[in-house]
């Protein structure tokens, strides 16, 4: 494929993902003139889908799409890092997501739910380290 064709593919996928994000944002309930970020997106539904939960799954889907496009456009061979096992981009993404879950759980235990920005910053540093050295 030519570079311009890849550009079109990237733009179409980005437009679709942004449209989905806009629909999620529009579905956030409004109470007393302000958005209720933790309110149910679908009232009365069997599962309490809130905007943060939907945004989390949107981010996971976006990561999987990016990783798929990278694998198609720039195929790679597994590499051996500091863990002494062969890993691909997908393996490193899985290690990052799993480690980030544990970092957040530990942060919740130590600092409580009010200061999760610190855990997010720590997870971003962890992700950079995993993708660089693992």
Explain briefly what this protein structure is:
With about 130 residues, the protein is mainly α.
Features:
two-stranded antiparallel sheet; 66% helix; 134 residues; flat; 2 domains; mainly alpha
Describe the structure.
It is a single chain. It is built from 4 helices and 4 strands. It has about 130 residues and is mostly helical. It has 2 domains: about 1-75; about 80-134. It has a two-stranded antiparallel sheet with strand order 1-2. Strands 3-4 form a two-stranded antiparallel sheet. Helix 3 (about 90-110) runs antiparallel to helix 4 (about 115-134). It starts with a helix and ends with a helix.
Order of helices and strands: HEEHEEHH
Low-confidence stretches are none
Radius of gyration: 18 Å
Count of DSSP H/I helices: 4
Portion of residues within helices: 55-70%
Our estimate of the beta-strand percent is 5-15%
Describe the main β-sheet briefly.
Answer: 2 strands, antiparallel
Question: How does the overall form come out from the CA principal axes?
Answer: flat
The CA-CA distance between the termini, in Å, is 31 Å
**Class by helix and strand content?**
mainly alpha
């Amino acid at each position: 494929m030519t570079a311009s064709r890849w550009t079109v593919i990237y733009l179409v996928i980005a437009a679709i993902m942004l449209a989905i994000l806009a629909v999620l944002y529009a579905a956030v309930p409004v109470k007393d003139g302000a958005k209720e970020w933790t309110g149910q997106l679908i009232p009365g539904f069997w599962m309490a889908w809130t905007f943060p939960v939907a945004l989390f799954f949107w981010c996971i889907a976006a990561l999987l799409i990016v990783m798929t496009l990278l694998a198609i456009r720039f195929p790679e061979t597994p590499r051996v890092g500091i863990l002494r096992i062969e890993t691909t981009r997908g393996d490193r993404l899985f290690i990052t997501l799993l480690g980030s879950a544990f970092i957040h759980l530990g942060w919740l235990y130590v600092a409580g739910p009010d200061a999760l920005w610190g855990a997010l910053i720590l997870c971003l540093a962890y992700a950079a380290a995993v993708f660089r050295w693992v």
